[in-house]
Amino acid sequence: MLNPFIFKANDIRGVTEGSEPEWDEAGAYALGSAFVEVFGLAGGSVVLGRDMRLSGPRMSAAFVEAVLDAGADVVDVGLASTDELWFASGHLGLPGVMFTASHNPGKYNGIKFCHPGARPIAPEELVTIAELAQAGRGAAKAETRGTRSENDVLGAYAAHLHGLVDLTGIRPLKVVADAGNGMAGHTLPAVFPGGADGPPVEIIGLYTDPDGNFPNHPANPLEPQNLVDAQATVRERGADLALVFDGDADRCFIIDERGEVVSPSTVTALIASQELGRHPGSTVVVNNITSRSVAEVVAENGGTTVVTKVGHTFVKAAMAEHDAVFGGEHSAHYYFREFWGADTGMLAALHVLAVAGRSTSPLSALVTDFTRYAASGEINSTVDDPGTIIEAVAAAFAGRGEADRLDGLMVNGPDWWVNVRRSNTEPLLRLNVEARTEEQMAALRDEALAIIRG
């Protein structure tokens, strides 16, 4: 079973639990066979990992069987965060497969693919995999079946991250870390082992037991209600900041010592300034709904900004094309040249800790210069006809700014912008607004929402 709706712009995601699943073990087997065919892997190897979702063992096992039947070997890293799988692909030089549905509810599962070195697959490659799997036309069974081996890369992953960010000499930090019962609960103890062997960071863990039922709150830090526990704990424990990860831990939200959310655009500007200090004149990649303050900070630090569509495959492709040192998205995906151009929430967190730990000022003061505009945040709406709604917004804002269609509709005014686009992963229309003042942003936001929601 492979419902065509599980194939998204960047990956695969669909319901696997309950009475009406959208894909099953037979579908996973078909996808494994198609993957070997499209990537030409017969006689080669692939590295595979999975998150804590309840369907992960059976769905990934079916995929593995197909790969083995097609004559390819599987290096199984077991439970892993998505950025740990990207690390394994880069470290081992193998194409990668990650079974995860990121921040989606527990009844979902999905797959993210990459080429060796964590390089993104092209959208047309995913389309071909989907077509072959749905038609049952994957790789032929090989005369010699592949072999499966296990490789725990968690220690090497943590060592690689510490080799990229120097935390020696920082002041002691007290840090709340909300794993949301996702895979950050798996990686945090390796990255912050405590004692003399680790950096001087006291971790106050929230929901660090990986659990595909998500018993405490959904592992989606884009929703404000999923941040409140970390915000409250920062205030109660007098912590320096908090880290809030999504389900597969490739994203990380930052909360300051007051319990206030630090915008991912602000974090992008902060890290960009640090990376440009180490690599002068480099390029930084952002998507087109990242704050204008990022491009301003990049220019002030002698760098160049490249703008791309929302989505990890688009950002990674731009990172490779322009040899960019760093990339950031509004959704708290952060990409690093030194991490094979892939996204990693944990490495972004380490960069923020390094900045905070080398200053006696609180984080709220450190990020002030990187926050220059008022933003609405991403506002989602379910609509029957997204295309018609987008054109209605375009008509309402016609003549008031420069419009482009790089990703949905973007209208750029002199000191504001409005973006409306379809989600790549969910049946939603997404609105983002930014302006110089809070009042201007609110007026533009409310005007656009009145059109979207009628």
From TrEMBL:
Cofactor (UniProt): Mg(2+)
Domain Alpha-D-phosphohexomutase C-terminal: 378-448
EC number: 5.4.2.8
Pfam families, sorted: PGM_PMM_I, PGM_PMM_II, PGM_PMM_III, PGM_PMM_IV
One BP annotation, GO: carbohydrate metabolic process
Enzyme class per UniProt: isomerase
Keywords on record: Isomerase, Magnesium, Metal-binding, Phosphoprotein
UniProt KW Isomerase keyword: yes
UniProt-listed InterPro entries: A-D-PHexomutase_a/b/a-I, A-D-PHexomutase_a/b/a-I/II/III, A-D-PHexomutase_a/b/a-II, A-D-PHexomutase_a/b/a-III, A-D-PHexomutase_C, A-D-PHexomutase_C_sf, Alpha-D-phosphohexomutase_SF
Protein name: Phosphomannomutase
Source organism of the structure: Microlunatus antarcticus
